[in-house]
């Protein structure tokens, strides 16, 4: 069960980082290097928190008895 949680957490981390990078590089008109880093960090953190909350509170509870 712990391995499943760690793998899920790693997948959420990879998804949030890649989506944050995509939004920063291609969707938003961010030009400065430092501003890109800050935008990527904020977007990645927000996406991670949202995805983690959805996966833990919505997807995970039906499978708790397993």
Notes on the protein architecture:
80% of the residues lie in helices and 0% in strands. It is mostly helical and 66 residues long. It has a domain at 30-58. Helix 1 (2-27) runs antiparallel to helix 2 (33-59). The chain is elongated and about 45 Å long.
How does the SSE layout of this entry go?
Layout: H1 2-27, H2 33-59
Helix pairs in contact: 1-2
Quick take:
The protein has 66 residues and is an all-alpha fold. 80% of the residues lie in helices and 0% in strands.
Overall pLDDT confidence: 86
Secondary-structure-based class equals: mainly alpha
Low-confidence stretches: none
Q: H/E order of the elements?
A: HH
Per DSSP, the total helix count is 2
Content of β-strand: under 5%
In this structure, how is the largest beta sheet organized? none
List keywords for this structure.
66 residues, single chain, 2 helices, mainly alpha
């Amino acid at each position: 069960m712990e391995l499943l949680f760690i793998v899920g957490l790693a997948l959420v981390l990879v998804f949030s980082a890649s989506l944050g990078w995509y939004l920063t590089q291609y969707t938003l008109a961010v030009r400065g290097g430092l501003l890109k880093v800050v935008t990527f960090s904020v977007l990645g953190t927000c996406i991670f928190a949202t995805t983690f909350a959805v996966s833990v509170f919505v997807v995970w509870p039906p499978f708790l008895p397993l």
